[in-house]
C-alpha cells in the first residue's frame, strides 16, 4: 500500500557562481603564503629549467625563491637604484635585469656580482629579455629606444628609435632569434626584425601598453594596456582578434597557463581573471588584497605567484592529490563497512525459503511527527537551531506543509516565551527573503493574530516584535525605491523605442 | 442533414464498481460487484475480470449470495427484476419480475424461500419513502417468473443498503434511518424503535449511517455521522436497552461490519483507514491506513479469510484477515469533473485523465482496466473535508510521448494561488514518467491552455502555456549544465503578450511552424522560430472558445469557435475567412490521424455531433442528440487496427475512435454496426471456449480445428462435421512429453497403417477416397521430411502406440494438425 509521502523540500537555485570544471580546478590551491618584500613587486619570472625557481624583482633587489621555500635561495642586491624586469635565460643559467640608473646587468644565477654591465641607455631600463639564440639581450627603456646587445662582447648591436614614449614591455620570439615585439606608452606594439633596421609591423592598442604575451605557437599576440586585453593575429598581419574588457582598472600583467588553454590577466583592480582561450570568456576570478603589478604561473600551474604594490608576494601552491582526497575523506565519516554488509552477502541456498522483509522507509524527524499528526512537535523539530540557521528551506517547507494541512494555526499557537522568541527570531532572519516570503508572510500574520493579547507581557518577545517591525518598515522602503527606479527605467525605455509602423504594436521580450 | 443508422453511441468501460457492497464467494476466490447494468465477477487473487453477468436493463442495485446455494447469487436492479445467477459459469438461472424498482436486497439462511427487498412506499418512482418488503419466491421452475407475492415488513426505511441488517440467527432485522433505530422481531411480529437526540452538546451529530448485527450475540453496531460507533444491547426491551460508544473516526462512519465469527468489528470512513476492533475488548484496535480513498463499503468473505473494501475512487481492495492488502481492483476513477482534458498517451494508447486527487490515471480503453496512476502532486493526501488540495488542472503530452507536462494548482480562500508546472520525462527502464523539472509559479494567474509543439521530426520540443495574467510563455529544454550531475532541464524561452488581453487557447499547426493563440476576440498567429507576430485574425463578436489547425491536406485552415455561436474557418494562405456558420459549438477537436474535425454542438439541452472536413461544405457525419447536456471533453483515440469500412458515413471512424464524456461523467463512444457484430461474435466464442479446460495446446489446437472445420465445410460433405470434438486420443497425444515419443520415421509408417485400417463411411464415394489416397501418399512423404527437419518433438504422433484404434477421420485430422504446425510455429517466431 502507499507509504507516507515525506514533505517535499523545495530546492532553490543556488545564487552566485555556478560550479564548473574551471572553478574546481582553480580553487584547488592551498591558502596563500605571503612574503613581505622591500617595495612593490614589479616582476616575477620562473626559471625554465627544473626545479623552476623564480626571480622576484622588488625595489632594489632581485630575490630567487625555490619552488617550496619561503626564504630566498639567492639575492641580487648590487643595484644602485630600483631594479626592473629580472629574467632568466632559457637554460636558467643567466639572469638579466634593468635598472632605474639605465644600466643593464647580467648575472650568473650562481654568482653574486654582475657578469656584464650594458651601458648606453639614457634613462631607466624597464624591459630586458634574452633572444632565443641565448647570445643577445633585448632591452627597452624610458628613453624611447629599444636595443639589442651582444652578450659575449657586451656591445650594443642595434638600436631602434621608433617609439615615441616609454617602452614598458617587450618580448622576444622563442622560435626565431631575430624577432621581438615591444609595447610602449605611445599605444603601439611594434614587431622588429633584427635583420632589418626598422619595425616590420605596428599595431595600435589604443591605450598605453603594459604587458605583452606570445602564444606558444607565436601566431597570436596578447597585449594589455589600460582596461583592455587585446589579442592580435600576427599571421594575418597584426589583425585584432578580440578585445576583452573585464577589469575596471589598468591591466598590468598577462600570463598563460601551462597548457595554453587559459589566459590569466592581473590588474590594479586587485583581480586576476582567468579566460578560456577558445571563447575568451572569463571562467574564474581571484581576488587579492592590493593592486597587482606582477603575476607568475609555475609550469603545470603548480603555483600562482602574485606581486602587489604594497610589497607583498603571495604564493599559492596547488593541493596535491592526497590532500584533496584526505579532505573529502574527512567529510564522509561512515560506519565501518562490515556494519553494512552484515548478513547482506549471504546467498540463499536452493531449498531456502526466502522471507523478504519490507524495506523500511526512512523519514526525517519532522516527517515522523507529521505522520502522527503531531503538528506542534513537527514545527518545533523544524525550528531546531541547526535547521533554522543552516537549512531554513526545511523550516519553510514544514510551515508550508502545515499550512496545506490546515493546521498551521494549531502548530503556532500555545507557545511559551522561549518558543515564541525562537519563532520570531527565525521570521526576522528570513521573512524578507524573496524565496520564503510567500510562505512566511501569512504565517507571520497568523502569529500576530494569535499572540495579540499577550503583547507587552514579555520583554524578550517585545524586542523581537520591535525588530520585526523595523525590518518590515525598511523592506517597504526598499520596495518603494525599487518601484521608483523601475518606473524611471520604463520611461527611458519607452522613449528610446522607435514607434513601430505595424498596425498592431506588440510588446515582447526575450528571457533567458 | 443525414442520420446514419449504422453508427451507435454506446457506453464504453469505466463503469462504477463501488456502487454497492461487493460480495465474496464462499471459497473467497471470486468477487462479485454491481457495475452499471451488469454484475462483474473478479478473481480475488489475480484482480482480473472473469466475466460479466449481463441481463439487467437498468442499474444493478444489489448483489447477494444465495443463502441456500453458495454457487448462486441474486442480483436486483432498478428495472424491477431479481435475477439468480450461476456466477462461476456466468449463467442466468432465473428471472423474477417484481415490477417495481428495487433499491436493495437482503436474504437470510433462516428464512427459506423469502427475499427481502427495499422498494418505494408509493407506486410512483420519485417517492422519497421506502419500505422493506418480504418477497416470497414462487416455486415455478420457469426461467422467467412473475413474483408478485410480497408483504411489507417495515415501513420508512433508509434507501442506503448499509442501514439494514439481519440479526443473530435471522431472529430480527434491524434498520436505521435518521435518528431512529428500528428492530423487528419475526417471532413476536413486533418492532422496537430507539431514538437518539437531535444533537448533544459538543456538536455531535447522531444520525445513523450504517449498522451491522453480531452473528452470534445480541448486539447491533451502528455507525454515526460524527464518527462514533455505538454497540446496542438488550434491545428486546423498550426501556432497558443499553449502548456503549466507540470513537476513533473523526468524521462519518460509512460502513461497519462484524466478521462471520463475531470476534472482530471492522469499520471505515472518510479517513480511508480500515479499523479492526476486537469484540468485547474494544480498546485493542488494528489499523490499515492509507488505503487511498474514503471507504464506502466493507464486505467479509463467509469464511472470514478475506475482507473487501470499496472506495470512493472506484476501487475495490482485497484485504487478508491479518490486515494486509492482497489485491487492488481499480476501475476508472471519476471525480465530479475532469479538469485536465481527455488525452491519449501516444505510447501506451491509454486514455489519460484526472484520477485520484493529485494523480493522473492511465486507463486502457481496449482492456477496460486502469494501467497505472501517476502521482503528480507527490504530497501526502490529507483526508479531511473542507481542505483545499492540490489539483491537477492541465496536462499535455508531446507527439511521441517522451514528455508530459502537468499543471497543478491550489487556491485557498484568502491567500494567493499556488501553481506548479511539472515536466515529466518518459523513462524507458521503469516504463513510467519521471519528474524532470518543477517550475513553481510559472505564471501569476491560472493557466488557461497548454500545448506541446507537434513536429514529429524536430529535435527540440517546445511547450507553450497561456495564462490569465495576460502572458503566454514558451518553455524549452535547455542544454545540460556544465557540471555533469544535472541533466537537461526546461526553462522559459519567450514571454509574449498582446495588448494586455488574456490568452484563452493555444494551438500549434501540424508541422509546428505556426502557433495560434487566441486573445479574446482576436486570434494571433506567431512564428515559434523567430517569435514574430505574423498576423491577426478576428471575427467579432464573441471571444474565441476553441482553436484548431487543420491536418494533412487541410493544414492551411485554422478553425475557431466563438462564444457567440459561430464556427469560423480561416485560410492561412490568404489570411481571410474561408467560411463561417452559426452553431453553438461547445467543443471542437481534430483527429490527429486524418483531416476530420469533430464539433459538438449543444442544441436545446442535447448535444449534436458533426464530423466534417474543413475543405468540404457538407459534413461527413452528423448525429443528433447523442446525449443530454453539454459535452465538454472528448478525444480521438487512435485504433490499434484500422477498420476497413468503405461506407462514406463511417469512414471517419476507420483510423481513430471518438470518445467523449457526458455531463454525468459517462464515457461514451461511437461504434459501427460491423464492429459491434464482430465484438458480439468474439464474446460469444469466448463463452464457448470457457466451457472447456484451457491449456496452451488447446488454444493452438482449437484454433486449427476451427480453421479446419471451415475448410471441410467448404470442400467435403457433412461427414467431416461429425468429428469427435474433444478426442481422448488427441488430448493424450498432446500431453505426452516429446522425449518419450518414438522417432518420427517410425511414427509415420504407423500413421499410414492407421489410415489403412480405418473405417470408411458407407456414404463416402469411392472416387473421393481414391483421390485422398493419392494425396495421402504425397503427404506421407512430406510428413517424413517434416518430421526429420523439425526435430523439435512437438508433434505427438506417438500416441498411436497408446491408442491404435484411431479412426481415419481422426488420423486425417492429426495429419492436418501436423501440416499446420509450420504456420503457427512461424507465427510464434515472428511475434
Features:
heterodimer, A: 512 residues, alpha+beta, Methylamine Dehydrogenase, Chain H, 2 domains, four-stranded antiparallel β-sheet, 29 strands, 25% helix, B: Methylamine Dehydrogenase, Chain H, five-stranded mixed β-sheet, 7 helices, 57 strands, 13% helix, nucleus (chain A)
Q: Can you walk through the features of this model?
A:
The complex is a heterodimer of chains A (about 500) and B (about 850). Chain A folds into two domains: about 30-320, YVTN repeat-like/Quinoprotein amine dehydrogenase (Methylamine Dehydrogenase, Chain H, 7 Propeller), CATH 2.130.10; about 365-495. Helices cover about 25% and strands about 30% of the residues of chain A. The two termini of chain A are about 45 Å apart. Chain A has eleven helices and 29 strands. Chain A is an alpha+beta fold. In chain A, strands 1-28-27-26 form a four-stranded antiparallel sheet, with no helix packed on it. In chain A, strands 2-3-4-5 form a four-stranded antiparallel sheet, with no helix packed on it. The longest helix of chain A is centred in the last third of the chain and has 38 residues, at about 460-495. In chain A, a hairpin with a 5-residue loop joins strand 24 (about 270-275) and strand 25 (about 280-285). Mean pLDDT of chain A is about 85; it is low at about 500-510. Chain B has about 850 residues and is mainly beta. Chain B has a domain at about 20-140: Methylamine Dehydrogenase, Chain H. Chain B is about 15% helix and about 40% strand. Chain B contains seven helices and 57 strands. In chain B, the strands form 14 sheets. Chain B has a five-stranded mixed sheet, with no helix packed on it. A four-stranded antiparallel sheet of chain B has the order 1-57-56-55. Residues about 685-695, about 715-725, about 760-770 and about 780-805 of chain B have low confidence and may be disordered. Classes of the chains: A alpha+beta (about 500), B mainly beta (about 850).
Amino acid at each position: 500500500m502507499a507509504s507516507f509521502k515525506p514533505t517535499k523540500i523545495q530546492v532553490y537555485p543556488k545564487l552566485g557562481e555556478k560550479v564548473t570544471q574551471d572553478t574546481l580546478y582553480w580553487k584547488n590551491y592551498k591558502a596563500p603564503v605571503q612574503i613581505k618584500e622591500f617595495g612593490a613587486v614589479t616582476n616575477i619570472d620562473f626559471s625554465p629549467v627544473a626545479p623552476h625557481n623564480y626571480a622576484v624583482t622588488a625595489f632594489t633587489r632581485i630575490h630567487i625563491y625555490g619552488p617550496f621555500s619561503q626564504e630566498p635561495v639567492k639575492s641580487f642586491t648590487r643595484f644602485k637604484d630600483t631594479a626592473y624586469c629580472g629574467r632568466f635565460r632559457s637554460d636558467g643559467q643567466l639572469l638579466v635585469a634593468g635598472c632605474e640608473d639605465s644600466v643593464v646587468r647580467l648575472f650568473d644565477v650562481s654568482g653574486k656580482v654582475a657578469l656584464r654591465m650594458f651601458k648606453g641607455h639614457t634613462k631607466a631600463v624597464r624591459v630586458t629579455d634574452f633572444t632565443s639564440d641565448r647570445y643577445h639581450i633585448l632591452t627597452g627603456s624610458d628613453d624611447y629606444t629599444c636595443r639589442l646587445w651582444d652578450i659575449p662582447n657586451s656591445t650594443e648591436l642595434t638600436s631602434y628609435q621608433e617609439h615615441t614614449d616609454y617602452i614598458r614591455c617587450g618580448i622576444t620570439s622563442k622560435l626565431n632569434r631575430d624577432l621581438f615585439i615591444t609595447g610602449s606608452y605611445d599605444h603601439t606594439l611594434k614587431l622588429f626584425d633584427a635583420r632589418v633596421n626598422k619595425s616590420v609591423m605596428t599595431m595600435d592598442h589604443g591605450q598605453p601598453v603594459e604587458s605583452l604575451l606570445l602564444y606558444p605557437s607565436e601566431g597570436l599576440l596578447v597585449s594589455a594596456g589600460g582596461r583592455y586585453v587585446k589579442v592580435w593575429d600576427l599571421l594575418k598581419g597584426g589583425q585584432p582578434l578580440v578585445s576583452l574588457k573585464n577589469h575596471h582598472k589598468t591591466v598590468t600583467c598577462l600570463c598563460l597557463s601551462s597548457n595554453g588553454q587559459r589566459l590569466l590577466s592581473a590588474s590594479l583592480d586587485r583581480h586576476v581573471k582567468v579566460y578560456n582561450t577558445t571563447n575568451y570568456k572569463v571562467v574564474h576570478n581571484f581576488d587579492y588584497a592590493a593592486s597587482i603589478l606582477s603575476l607568475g604561473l609555475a609550469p603545470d600551474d603548480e603555483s600562482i605567484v602574485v606581486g602587489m604594490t604594497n610589497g607583498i608576494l603571495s604564493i599559492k601552491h596547488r593541493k596535491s592529490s592526497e590532500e584533496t582526497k584526505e579532505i573529502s575523506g574527512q567529510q564522509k565519516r561512515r560506519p565501518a563497512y562490515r556494519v553494512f554488509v552484515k548478513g547482506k552477502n549471504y546467498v540463499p541456498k536452493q531449498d531456502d525459503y526466502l522471507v523478504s522483509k519490507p524495506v523500511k522507509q526512512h523519514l526525517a524527524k519532522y516527517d515522523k511527527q507529521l505522520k502522527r499528526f503531531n503538528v506542534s512537535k513537527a514545527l518545533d523539530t523544524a525550528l531546531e537551531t541547526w535547521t533554522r540557521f543552516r537549512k531554513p528551506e526545511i523550516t519553510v517547507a514544514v510551515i508550508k506543509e502545515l499550512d496545506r494541512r490546515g493546521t498551521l494555526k494549531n502548530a503556532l499557537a500555545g507557545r511559551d516565551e522561549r518558543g515564541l522568541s525562537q519563532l520570531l527570531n527565525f521570521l526576522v532572519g528570513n521573512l524578507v527573503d524573496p524565496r520564503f516570503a510567500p510562505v512566511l508572510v501569512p504565517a507571520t500574520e497568523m502569529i500576530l493574530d494569535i499572540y495579540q493579547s499577550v503583547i507587552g507581557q514579555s520583554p524578550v518577545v517585545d524586542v523581537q516584535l520591535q525588530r520585526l517591525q523595523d525590518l518590515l518598515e525598511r523592506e517597504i522602503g526598499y520596495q518603494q525605491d525599487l518601484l521608483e527606479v523601475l518606473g524611471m527605467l520604463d520611461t527611458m525605455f519607452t522613449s528610446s523605442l522607435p514607434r513601430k509602423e505595424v498596425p498592431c504594436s506588440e510588446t515582447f521580450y526575450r528571457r533567458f | 442533414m443525414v442520420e446514419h443508422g449504422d453508427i451507435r453511441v454506446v457506453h464504453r468501460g469505466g463503469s462504477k464498481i463501488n456502487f454497492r457492497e461487493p460480495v465474496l464467494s464462499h471459497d473467497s476466490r471470486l468477487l462479485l460487484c454491481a457495475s452499471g447494468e451488469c454484475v462483474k465477477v473478479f478473481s480475488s487473487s489475480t484482480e482480473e475480470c472473469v466475466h460479466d453477468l449481463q441481463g439487467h436493463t437498468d442499474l444493478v442495485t444489489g448483489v447477494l449470495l444465495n443463502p441456500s446455494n453458495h454457487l448462486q447469487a441474486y442480483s436486483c436492479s432498478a428495472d424491477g427484476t431479481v435475477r439468480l445467477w450461476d456466477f462461476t459459469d456466468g449463467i442466468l438461472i432465473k428471472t423474477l419480475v417484481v415490477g417495481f424498482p428495487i433499491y436493495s436486497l437482503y436474504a437470510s439462511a433462516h428464512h427459506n424461500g423469502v427475499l427481502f427487498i427495499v422498494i418505494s412506499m408509493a407506486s410512483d418512482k420519485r417517492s422519497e419513502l421506502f419500505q422493506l418488503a418480504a418477497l416470497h419466491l414462487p416455486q415455478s421452475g420457469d426461467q422467467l417468473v412473475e413474483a408478485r407475492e410480497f408483504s411489507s415488513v417495515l415501513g420508512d426505511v433508509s434507501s442506503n443498503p448499509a442501514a439494514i441488517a439481519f440479526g443473530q440467527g435471522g431472529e430480527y432485522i434491524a434498520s436505521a434511518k435518521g435518528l431512529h433505530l428500528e428492530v423487528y422481531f419475526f417471532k413476536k411480529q413486533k418492532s422496537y424503535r430507539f431514538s437518539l437526540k437531535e444533537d448533544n452538546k459538543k456538536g455531535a451529530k447522531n444520525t445513523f449511517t450504517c449498522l451491522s448485527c453480531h452473528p452470534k450475540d445480541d448486539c447491533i453496531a451502528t455507525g454515526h455521522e460524527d464518527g462514533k460507533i455505538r454497540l446496542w444491547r438488550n434491545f428486546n426491551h423498550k426501556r432497558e436497552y443499553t449502548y456503549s460508544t466507540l470513537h476513533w473516526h473523526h468524521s462519518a462512519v460509512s460502513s461497519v461490519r462484524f466478521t462471520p465469527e463475531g470476534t472482530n468489528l471492522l469499520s471505515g470512513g472518510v479517513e480511508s483507514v480500515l479499523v479492526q476492533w476486537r469484540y468485547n475488548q474494544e480498546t485493542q484496535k488494528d489499523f490499515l491506513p492509507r488505503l487511498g480513498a474514503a471507504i464506502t463499503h466493507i464486505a467479509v468473505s463467509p469464511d472470514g479469510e478475506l475482507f473487501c473494501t470499496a472506495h470512493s475512487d472506484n476501487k475495490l481492495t482485497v484485504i487478508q484477515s491479518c490486515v494486509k492488502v492482497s489485491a487492488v481492483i481499480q476501475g476508472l476513477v471519476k471525480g465530479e469533473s475532469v479538469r485536465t482534458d481527455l488525452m491519449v498517451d501516444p505510447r501506451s494508447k491509454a486514455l489519460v485523465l484526472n484520477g485520484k486527487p493529485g494523480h493522473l490515471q492511465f486507463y486502457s480503453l481496449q482492456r477496460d482496466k486502469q494501467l497505472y496512476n501517476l502521482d503528480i502532486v507527490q504530497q501526502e493526501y490529507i483526508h479531511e473535508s473542507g481542505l483545499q488540495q492540490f489539483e491537477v488542472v492541465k496536462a499535455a503530452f508531446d507527439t511521441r510521448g517522451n514528455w508530459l507536462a502537468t499543471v497543478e494548482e491550489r487556491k485557498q480562500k484568502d491567500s494567493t494561488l499556488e501553481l506548479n508546472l511539472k515536466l515529466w520525462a518518459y523513462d524507458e527502464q521503469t516504463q513510467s514518467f519521471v519528474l524532470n523539472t518543477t517550475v513553481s509559479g510559472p505564471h501569476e494567474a491560472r493557466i488557461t491552455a497548454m500545448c506541446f509543439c507537434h513536429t514529429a521530426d524536430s529535435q527540440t520540443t517546445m511547450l507553450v502555456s497561456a495564462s490569465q495574467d495576460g502572458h503566454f510563455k514558451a518553455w524549452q529544454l535547455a542544454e545540460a549544465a556544465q557540471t555533469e550531475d544535472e541533466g537537461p532541464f526546461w526553462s522559459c524561452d519567450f514571454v509574449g503578450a498582446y495588448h494586455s488581453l488574456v490568452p484563452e487557447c493555444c494551438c500549434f499547426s501540424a508541422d509546428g511552424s505556426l502557433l495560434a493563440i487566441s486573445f479574446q476576440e482576436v486570434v494571433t498567429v506567431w512564428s515559434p522560430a523567430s517569435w514574430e507576430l505574423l498576423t491577426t485574425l478576428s471575427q467579432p463578436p464573441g471571444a474565441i472558445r476553441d482553436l484548431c489547425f487543420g491536418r494533412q491536406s487541410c493544414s492551411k485552415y485554422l478553425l475557431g469557435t466563438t462564444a457567440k455561436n459561430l464556427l469560423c474557418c480561416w485560410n492561412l494562405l490568404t489570411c481571410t475567412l474561408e467560411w463561417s456558420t452559426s452553431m453553438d459549438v461547445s467543443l471542437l477537436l481534430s483527429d490527429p490521424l486524418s483531416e476530420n474535425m469533430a464539433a459538438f454542438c449543444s442544441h436545446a439541452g442535447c448535444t449534436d455531433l458533426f464530423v466534417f472536413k474543413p475543405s468540404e461544405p457538407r459534413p461527413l457525419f452528423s448525429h443528433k442528440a447523442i446525449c443530454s447536456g453539454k459535452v465538454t471533453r472528448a478525444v480521438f483515440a487512435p485504433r490499434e487496427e484500422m477498420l476497413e469500412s468503405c461506407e462514406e458515413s463511417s469512414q471517419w471512424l476507420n483510423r481513430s475512435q471518438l470518445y467523449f464524456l457526458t455531463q454525468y461523467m459517462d464515457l461514451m463512444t461511437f461504434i459501427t454496426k460491423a464492429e459491434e457484430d464482430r465484438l458480439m461474435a468474439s464474446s460469444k466464442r469466448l463463452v464457448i471456449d470457457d466451457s472447456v479446460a484451457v491449456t496452451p495446446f488447446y488454444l493452438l489446437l482449437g484454433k486449427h480445428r476451427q480453421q479446419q472445420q471451415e475448410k471441410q465445410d467448404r470442400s467435403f460433405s457433412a461427414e467431416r462435421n461429425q468429428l469427435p470434438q474433444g478426442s481422448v486420443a488427441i488430448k493424450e497425444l498432446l500431453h505426452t512429453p516429446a522425449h518419450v515419443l518414438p522417432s518420427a520415421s517410425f511414427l509415420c509408417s504407423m500413421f499410414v497403417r492407421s489410415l489403412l485400417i480405418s473405417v470408411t463411411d458407407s456414404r463416402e464415394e469411392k472416387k473421393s477416397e481414391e483421390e485422398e489416397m493419392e494425396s495421402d501418399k504425397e503427404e506421407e512423404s512430406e510428413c517424413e521430411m517434416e518430421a526429420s527437419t523439425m526435430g523439435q518433438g512437438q508433434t505427438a504422433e506417438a500416441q498411436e502406440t497408446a491408442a491404435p484404434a484411431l479412426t481415419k477421420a481422426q488420423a486425417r485430422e492429426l495429419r492436418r494438425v501436423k501440416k499446420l504446425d509450420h504456420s503457427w510455429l512461424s507465427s510464434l517466431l515472428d511475434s
